[in-house]
Amino acid sequence: MSGYNEEAYRQARSSAIALPCPFERALLARCASCYKARKLLLAEREAITCTEAAANALCQDYHRALHENARFALHMDPNQPWPFGKEIRAQCGGALGLREALGRPDTDPPDIAQLIAEGLARHGEVAAFPYSEIMRAVVHYEPRKRR
Fold it and tell me: Is the pTM of this model over 0.85?
């Protein structure tokens, strides 16, 4: 038995995080960044919250679109929940793929909020993003191996 009360942690997390970041796993894995994100420490764990509701709504839209498009690419059953490894591939690959599709240089981890804003400026809406290009990065993204 672990000794941790997971339900108490979930309650503390939901009360501390008003706007949960849909790309939290990518930010914690450091394959993406976000200037609108704020890191919190809760019960010796890291969590990410968003500081702006409008940016969070756009990220939520992009995250949903990534899931819809990546289900086929990652061989996911639509009725099954997303396992951790495939969620990381969708989030990290989605950030890297959007950066590539927009023709941005690949020096640092991509800033997901800036990429979505730039994608909206170019394509008008999240549904019009070039998902065929983005899905190539999702499929080819390899999470780091366990030690």
Answer: yes
